[in-house]
Write a structure and sequence with these properties.
GIY-YIG endonuclease, 20 helices, Nucleotidyltransferase, domain 5, alpha+beta, seven-stranded mixed beta sheet
């Protein structure tokens, strides 16, 4: 019994002993690395499903199952607990086969600390310390607008350091934008009751409860005015105006003053990533947007991606409460654990729904449009990064050959003929060490008779780079010719004759000892055998040779068809190609049995072909 078989038996034995309880399961490989973390309502049933009929699994899961060497489970009291534990473990360990998240930036939050006198300040770092983190904000501008409103409305300090962190002999840190703490005139000097009441208003503001807050401020202002406390009433009036001004800037997206979160996921198969978008609506107004890129999604359904995105958000660090409604762009794979978790967090049922029409469906479409746009930007970023990335082999080739510029675009030439017949040449193009097949060129040799590789190379390079100059096409960084000194000399002369020499560098690569010849130097450059630079040159040269040979064979085959099979009365090019495809060569067609020919191209035509070859043979004898 092999080690793999033994490991599988051990895991299956563990599976048979698993409880029918909710919990989290973890698959590990031989090196004790976590492969996958999942949750289950009934652990035994869920884990057992992996080891049943493999035809039910996609390729990704099948590969993972073959790597499983051990199994570990953690039993929980409910599916909701399993959901939280699963997400925490995934974030901690980043298993290879789980969906992974990539933020294109670190989002800004507003933190309200877990202190007797909570501090309110901006941050990009979320810490599990009991503080509340409001956001994430889709831009720093939106976050600053909120902080500015908090300062104007409530006179509350929103600086990023506390009083105890300030050295009074040196003053506030250079990065400290607020001097209120240092001047001892900020909200830190308020009595505790007033401070805590103000924090309560700030949190309502951060939660998007502006309508209720405006109503409360109006009542407070009225009470202060009736009590003839005009200074206090004026302060409340200023607060009221600041909150109203902020509220007007918030986009109204729902007729009813509802609280809802809208989640949507869009997939781009070309880059093998998805984008999850969240719209957070409070009191009918869009208060924030959030997105994340999902990686490691091959073979996953949209519902699986969406469920992971939603669960990851709600089990992460966030404040602002659970909304009345959660709307989704696709059906979730298993809604039950999420629904239970939201119920427990909020204290009452939260509706999870996929809208098909109306205002809510319109919002989902808007979220999907945002996700599509973000994926487009992500694709452009990847393309730009790929262009900036220069492979090591390209850098090393520049050093080994002492080139003036990086050989990012290489054009390589090779000739092919059979004792001078059907002479052809090829040009292949490599960009950043990768073949760019759309730039490959084929050449029929027109001016050279007989097997003269030097003259053929001269003709081809003259034609190629005369056209490059005439049509102002992209000039390569390096030209490579397949051959030694002689080939290189012919190529150099060709470039000089048309006035192209010096526009880029050129070398010759000799096959026998893999020597690189450079114009003006008698001795070749010997690049180390294990060098990535030499491997790149060999790869380019071999591809040019393959392309030239395949072109030559194709041309010779067409000539053979024309001179042999198409000479038969009633046989056209199409029938000739059909025969060659079936039998492989003209000689095989000649030796084929009459029955086989008739079966392939019909009774009458097969008879003609058979008689042509066999009558010809009889006449020769």
């Amino acid at each position: 019994m092999s080690d793999n078989d033994s490991a599988e038996v051990d895991v299956r034995e563990k599976v048979d002993n698993l409880p029918l309880s909710p919990g989290v399961y973890m698959f590990k490989d031989k090196k004790d690395r976590l492969l996958y973390i999942g949750k289950a309502k009934r652990l035994r049933n869920r884990v057992r499903s992996y080891f049943q009929d493999s035809s039910d699994h996609d390729g990704r899961i099948s590969v993972m199952i073959r790597k499983i060497d051990d199994l570990e489970v953690i039993v929980t009291d409910s599916e909701a607990e399993a959901l939280i534990l699963e997400n925490n473990l995934i974030k901690k360990h980043h298993p290879r086969y789980n969906i992974l998240y990539r933020d294109d930036k670190t989002y800004p939050y507003i933190c309200v600390t877990n202190d007797e006198r909570p501090r309110v300040y901006p941050t990009r770092t979320v810490i599990n310390d009991g503080s509340k983190y409001y956001g994430p904000y889709d831009s720093v501008t939106h976050m600053k607008r909120m902080l500015d409103t908090i300062r104007k409305a409530f006179d509350l300090c929103t600086c990023a350091v506390s009083r105890k962190n300030i050295d009074r002999t040196k003053g506030p840190p250079k990065w400290h934008s607020c001097f209120d703490d240092y001047l001892e005139s900020c909200s830190g000097d308020w009595d505790l009751e007033k401070y805590q009441a103000t924090i309560d208003k700030v949190e309502r503001m951060l939660n998007g409860r502006t309508n209720a807050l405006i109503q409360d401020l109006k009542e407070e202002m009225s009470i202060a005015s009736d009590a003839l406390e005009f200074e206090q009433a004026a302060q409340i009036r200023d607060s009221l105006e600041a909150v109203k001004k902020y509220s007007k800037k918030m986009k109204m997206v729902a007729d009813k003053k509802v609280d809802r979160d809208l989640f949507a996921v869009k997939v781009d198969e070309e880059i093998n990533e998805a984008c999850g978008v969240l719209f957070k609506v409070r009191e009918g107004k869009l208060i924030s947007k959030f997105h994340r890129f999902l990686k490691n999604i091959k073979h996953l359904e949209k519902g699986e991606m969406l469920q992971s995105f939603v669960e990851d958000y709600y089990t992460g660090q966030h404040a602002g409460g659970i909304p009345d409604e959660v709307y989704i762009s696709d059906e979730l794979v298993n809604e039950e654990p999420l629904a239970q978790y939201l119920w427990e967090e909020r204290g009452k049922k939260v509706r999870i729904h996929r809208p098909q029409r109306g205002e809510k469906a319109k919002m989902i479409r808007m979220a999907l449009s945002n996700a599509k746009y973000l994926l487009g930007e992500r694709k452009l970023e990847k393309e730009k990064a790929a262009k900036k990335h220069i492979p090591h082999s390209v850098k090393e080739l520049k050093e080994q050959l002492n080139l003036q510029r990086l050989p990012r675009r290489i054009e390589c030439f090779d000739n092919s003929n059979l004792q001078g017949s059907d002479p052809v040449a090829s040009m292949v193009c490599f960009v950043d060490a990768r073949p760019k097949k759309s730039e490959y060129k084929r050449f029929n040799i027109k001016t050279v008779e007989g097997p003269d590789d030097f003259a053929s190379m001269k003709e081809v390079l003259s034609r190629r780079y005369k056209r490059v100059m005439d049509e102002k096409q992209q000039i390569p960084d390096l030209i490579v010719v397949d051959g030694g000194k002689g080939q290189l000399s012919s190529a150099v002369q060709a470039l000089k004759d048309i006035g192209f020499y010096g526009e880029c560098e050129i070398v010759g690569l000799a096959k026998r000892l893999e020597e690189v010849f450079v114009p003006g130097k008698d001795n070749p450059i010997m690049i180390p055998k294990k060098s990535s630079a030499l491997k790149l040159l060999q790869k380019v040269r071999d591809e040019a040779h393959r392309f030239a040979v395949s072109f030559h064979r194709n041309k010779r085959s067409k000539r053979t068809i024309k001179t042999e099979l198409t000479q038969i009365s009633g046989i056209g090019k199409k029938t000739a190609q059909q025969l060659l495809k079936k039998f492989g060569s003209v000689k095989s067609v000649q030796n084929a049995a009459l029955e086989d020919l008739q079966e392939e191209i019909g009774k009458k035509t097969g008879q003609k072909v058979y008689q042509y070859f066999h009558n010809s043979s009889a006449e020769e004898e």
